[in-house]
Every structure is written in C-alpha cells, then in structure tokens.
Amino acid sequence: MPSIQVDSVYVECVAVIVGVDRSVVVTVVARVAHLAWINGAFLVLGEGAAVTALLFEAFFVDESLVDVFDATMIHRGCPNLVATSRLLDLDASDPVKQLGKPTISAIYSPFSLRQIIEFVFFLPLNFIPIAGTPLFLVMTGYRAGPLHHWRYFKFRGFTKKEKRSYIQQRKLQYTWFGVVALLLQLIPVLSMLFLLTTAAGSALWAAKIEEKRRSTGQSDNLLSSPPFEDDPP
Q: Residue 56 burial (CB < 10 Å; 0-12/13-18/19+)?
C-alpha cells in the first residue's frame, strides 16, 4: 500500500479549527486516506469484473444460461412451463437431455442499456468510505434482480403491467437476489462460473414459487395475489 503524506500546514489548520491535538488529525486523515485507497482498488477491480461479466452474459453465454434455467425448472417439476417455449423429449434420461430446440426466442436475461448506464452512474458511490460500496450494490441490485426472472415472466405470459406489479410485490427479495448475483460476479476468475450458478438459483426460486402456487391453488390474478414469502428454516 502506498505511503500517505499529510501536509503539515493542513494538519495545523484542521487541528486549530476542530480543537484537537495534531497527532489525532494525522491519524484520522491517514486512516481515511488508506480507506479511500482500498475503496478505489475495489472500484477498479469491481468495475472491470462486473462489466466483463455483463457483456459476457449478454453476448456469449445467454444460450447456456437458458439451458441451465430450463433444465433446473424441469428437474424441479415444472416441464409444463418450459414446454411453452421449447420442444421437450420427456422420455430422455435426465433434464438436460430432455431439452429440445426453442420454439420461440429464448432469452435468459435481456441486455439492458439502462442497467449499464445506472451501473456506471452509481460507480462513484464506491469512493464513499464504508457505506459507499454496500449502497452501490443495493442500487444496482435493485435493477438487476428482476432481470434474472425474465424467462420465468415469459413462461407465465405476463404483460408489462402484470410483471411490474409482480416485481413490486417482491421488491426486497429481487433486490437482495440482484445484490448477491452482482457480488458473485465481482469475484475474479470464478465470476463466469457464478453466472451459471446464478441462473440455476433463479430457476430454483421460480420452481419454488410454482410449487407454492400449485399447493395453494393460487390464480394468475397478479394484482390481487399476496407477495411470495420463503418458507422459514
């Protein structure tokens, strides 16, 4: 870590204004400077890893993410939903082999220019000591979370109004899912692997929602349905 040089005149001025000993000012300024350096390093590494992951997901592995999502849904007992968008060979030995060709456009998570712009816009939050990075993750996770259920929304045939209402009822859950997904994408080397595990996780969540809907006989009237609540441990 680089050494921190604190100007003596600046220290004396701050000490006089605040009314504390000079050594206290030196200690505080040095620690804040070190913290800013750490936040800056996290910002640079996080920016590169996240942008790379977003572009990689959008242009190179989306088809693989669709297969992971669909196979997980079939494994968890939801082949009827998957069959709305692709051919299935239900006699095959495992969910992956059951996957046939898509009958309509198959997209796991659409490329969102708005998400990229917001990501870049909120990047400076990382320079705020302590609270900056968590705030950045929450702000970007709020937008990213629902995109991981884009395919599930297509399975359900949601209109824009129904999708907006559905997301609004589960705003906190989608935000935290987006935060965790973004954190995993910030891990160097393993970030691409976590793209696949995140798709599997979103499918498991969707399958659990479907299981709850079937067990309660819940209708598709989204505007009056209660928000999904995870089962307590």
A: middle
Specify which residues 86 forms β-bridges with.
Answer: 102
Kindly list the distances between the CA atom of residue 117 and the CA atoms of 33, 111, 143, 153, 176, in Å, as whole numbers in the listed order.
29, 12, 11, 24, 20
Residue 179 contacts residue 141 (beta carbons within 8 Å): yes
Residue with tokens 């979103």: 202
Q: List, for residues 85-99, the tens digit of each pLDDT value.
A: 999 998 888 999 999
Q: What one-letter code names the amino acid at 60? A: F
Q: Which residues of 77-106 are buried (b: 16+ CB within 10 A; e: fewer)?
A: ebeebbbebbebeeeeeebeebbeeeeeeb
Residue of 192, 202, 5 lying closest to 109 (CA atoms): 202
Compute the distance between CA of residue 145 and CA of residue 134 in angstroms, rounded to an integer.
15
| Helix segments in the chain, DSSP class H | 8-18, 22-59, 62-75, 79-82, 95-98, 113-122, 132-147, 150-156, 160-169, 171-185, 191-216
Instruction: Look at residues 177, 192, 204, 164 and name the one whose alpha carbon lies nearest to residue 56.
Output: 192
Q: Which residue has the tokens 């007992």?
A: 77
Phi and psi for 90 in degrees, rounded to 5?
-70, -10
CA angle 117, 127, 141 (to 5 degrees): 45
> What does the pLDDT look like over 49-79, one tens digit per residue?
556 666 665 556 778 899 999 999 999 999 9
Tokens representing residue 19 in the block: 């009314």
**The token pair that represents 149 in the structure block:** 């259920």
* CA–CA dist 88, 173 (Å, integer): 31
